[in-house]
Design a protein that fits this description.
Elements (H helix, E strand, L loop, with lengths): L1 E2 L21 H8 L9 E4 L4 E3 L9 E2 H10 L6 E5 H21 L9 E3 L6 H10 L6 E4 L2 H10 L7 E3 L5 H12 L4 E5 L4 H12 L4 E5 L24 H13 L6 E5 L9 H20 L6 E3 L23 H16 L8 E3 L3 H5 L3 E11 L14 H15 L9 H30 L5 H23 L9 H4 L1 H4 L2 E5 L3 H4 L1 H5 L6 E3 L9 E6 L8 E2 L2 E3 L2 E3 L2 E3 L9 E4 L6 H4 L10 E7 L5 E7 L4 H7 L4 H18 L4 H16 L7
Length: 669
């Protein structure tokens, strides 16, 4: 998806001078999937920079690279989390719009009223924005703990908005919900464990009032994907059908059946196959009808979370995608529940969903800078006098490879085969000579510099073969061993981030996120690579990338240019990543900023949230920064007394220590 460049004046050239015509911004968009997963919020401009359309197809766009530059001018250093509140509002509108269209299409005699699961992103400005933007739909919140309940109670001042109370509940949690009902809130305490029934009854008796009550049912319908095993008869939460019936009778005995208003179910996060949802909806619809027949007034059916997003743009039933659209989802929910209620002459319930991932994923982009790159040099070391025979053999092999040119042969199948055969033979020789060099080194016949020369010559041969293969016509049959050479040459790009802090799901559950350079997309990438983070942990890496329903271990990247930044964006990470991140190696939260499109063009910065300083993460681990400084000051005085440290150097050391405590935990440019 190539978009108009918002920073380009009218009449400006489509691309900078010197750009190769063999590669365009559209090629970059296709390579990284922006034309698939990015719609309608992300695309690439003609100058090869990522463009953000926070209001989707309703107009208004920002050049992400220019935005980052300007935010750096406000002393917001990378890594930087940019939250586009307009996207959050647009996601709300699309969700409600989809259900409104489905309700009209199927003649559903009910309505839709969603809630946001606070666990998805508990950041204050995020939850506040959702509550404010969702006010016109009486959009509510879902809490899964006491702390989240406190957040929801303080923010939800709309008496028509739902407050769904999930999770484990003690007596205080339940009493808080009962009293909140008297504040004019609409809390629904969902019974998820059988032992919660008696606590609800006891608390209601003690306070002379009850909350609205819901029941979470364990469905027999099984889910698919990464969270498929979290549902069914052995699910962590929910009541079995016998327990549901027991609960109904116990509530009836306690005089609380009239407060039973909601049926809830959940079949896993990121549902990738719409067929799974249909089965669950049919089962839940029948349970709802039976609860009504048993005398409960009901009125609400909560279909839980699970509305997935298409991380890789493949539109398939894979873990990183979905085989349905938002409108498909709404249509199936509405149509299926209508079909369940009509035969029983039951008024269709208000439909509730807890769609956190689908609402929050798109609205934030993490931008981090690349500090450097490691890889194999293709520089051929100069020959030394009296060089060992093994090294001379490697030099001859490299020279032979560089002499093989596809243009010297007939451009036909026989010529192509001849080139490939000669390259394969040369590579076999290079590997044999390298192995000979290693054996000679182990036996003491080659020095360490000579071994280094052998390795450099081998990698130079590898790179020369890779270049030759690139020049062959498309469709040329290449042996598997030679196909693997580009991957063998891949580099490691060192990113200024902590995976464990900013993208923990990439490490914990192999979640795929779109990751790509946010500029230079109008240039053909010439390298393959993966990312290593700042932590001293071998798992601190991003080495799985989206690839049209598949997974690739390496990403197409550009060579680094001296003195120029190389900025990478991680997209669709607005759900769960911030709240589940940890302090591995004491890398804390990053700087974050909330951006809104401004009337008449441009943007405004609504909120700035500074990342953790080194002092803050030390205090989180119960270290006293002042005590640390004092210990080091005393050590400095002792070193000065021994004559090991000059007073000026001690002053410099203490200045560095004090400044470090006040600075972000990440590296400075």
């Amino acid at each position: 998806m190539v978009l108009a460049d918002p920073s380009s004046p009218p009449g400006a050239p489509a691309a900078p001078a010197g750009r190769s015509d063999a590669w365009s911004a559209a090629d970059g968009a296709a390579l990284y999937g922006l034309d698939r997963w990015g719609e309608p919020y992300f695309g690439v401009g003609a100058r090869g920079q990522v463009i953000v359309q926070p209001r989707g197809d309703r107009g208004g766009s920002l050049d992400l690279v220019e935005l980052v530059r300007e935010l750096q001018g406000r002393d917001l250093t990378l890594p930087l989390l940019i939250r586009f509140d307009d996207i959050l509002e647009d996601r709300l509108e699309r969700l409600h719009g989809a259900f409104e269209r489905a309700i009209a299409q199927y003649g559903y005699n009910g309505r839709y009223q969603g809630v946001f699961p606070v666990k998805c992103n508990q950041q204050r400005h995020v939850v506040e924005q959702l509550v404010e933007s969702g006010r016109r739909w009486h959009f509510g919140l879902e809490a899964g703990s006491k702390a989240e309940l406190l957040i929801a109670l303080s923010l939800l001042d709309d008496p028509d908005a739902l407050l769904i109370c999930n999770g484990y509940k003690d007596r205080r949690y339940i009493e808080t919900a009962i009293l909140a009902r008297r504040l004019g809130r609409q809390p629904v305490v969902v019974i998820e464990q059988a032992d919660e029934v008696e606590r609800i009854i006891a608390a209601s008796s003690a306070l002379g009032g009850a909350p609205f009550i819901g029941i979470r049912a364990k469905l027999s319908a099984r889910s698919t994907g990464r969270w498929g095993s979290s549902v069914g008869e052995r699910a962590k939460f929910g009541l079995s059908i016998p327990d549901v019936l027991t609960t109904v009778e116990r509530l009836r005995e306690a005089g609380l059946l009239d407060d039973l208003r909601l049926l809830h179910f959940h079949i896993g996060s990121q549902i990738n196959d719409i067929a799974v949802l249909k089965d669950a909806l049919q089962e839940a619809g029948q349970i709802y009808a039976e609860l009504t027949r048993l005398g409960a007034p009901m009125g609400f059916l909560d279909v839980g979370g699970g509305l997935g997003i298409d991380y890789d743009g493949s539109r398939t039933a894979t873990a990183a995608s979905t085989n349905y659209s938002l409108q498909n989802y709404a249509n199936d929910v509405v149509a299926t529940i209508r079909e369940c209620c009509e035969p029983h002459d039951i008024r269709p319930p208000t439909l509730v969903s807890e769609s956190g991932r689908a609402l929050a994923s798109h609205f934030s982009v993490l931008v981090f800078d690349v500090l450097g790159a490691g890889g194999h040099s293709e520089t051929v070391p100069p020959p030394a006098e009296g060089e060992a025979l093994i090294l001379r053999n490697l030099r001859d092999t490299h020279a032979l490879i560089t002499a093989i040119a596809a243009g010297d042969l007939e451009v036909d199948a026989a010529g192509e085969r001849a080139v490939v055969e000669r390259l394969q033979e040369a590579w076999n020789d290079a590997l044999k000579f390298k192995e000979d060099a290693l054996t000679a080194f182990r036996l003491g016949y080659l020095s360490l510099p000579e071994r280094a020369t052998a390795e450099r010559l081998t990698w130079a041969s590898c790179q020369a073969i890779a270049r030759q293969l690139e020049g062959l016509p498309a469709g040329t049959v290449i042996p598997q061993e030679l196909q693997a050479l580009p991957a063998a040459l891949a580099g490691t790009y060192y990113g200024n981030l902590s995976v464990f802090r900013s993208a923990p799901d990439t490490w914990a559950i192999d979640q795929l996120f779109p990751v790509l350079p946010i500029h230079r997309l109008d240039e053909r990438p010439t390298r393959l690579g993966s990312f290593a983070d700042l932590t001293c942990d071998s798992d601190g890496k991003i080495a799985r990338f989206i690839d049209r329903g598949q997974v690739k271990p390496l990403l197409e990247l550009h060579g680094l240019r001296p003195g120029e930044p190389y900025w990478i964006g991680l997209f669709l990470g607005g759900a769960y990543q911030e709240v589940m991140g940890n302090l591995h190696n004491l890398f804390g939260s990053t700087n974050a900023v909330h951006i809104r499109l401004a009337a008449g063009g441009g943007y405004r910065v609504d909120h700035v949230v500074r990342g953790n300083t080194n002092a803050e993460v030390l205090e989180a681990m119960e270290h006293d920064p002042d005590l640390l400084l004092e210990r080091l000051r005393l050590a400095s005085e002792q070193a000065i007394g021994r004559g090991d440290l000059a007073i000026s150097d001690a002053r410099r050391l203490m200045a560095h220590l004090k400044a470090s405590l006040e600075q972000t935990t990440y590296l400075e440019a």
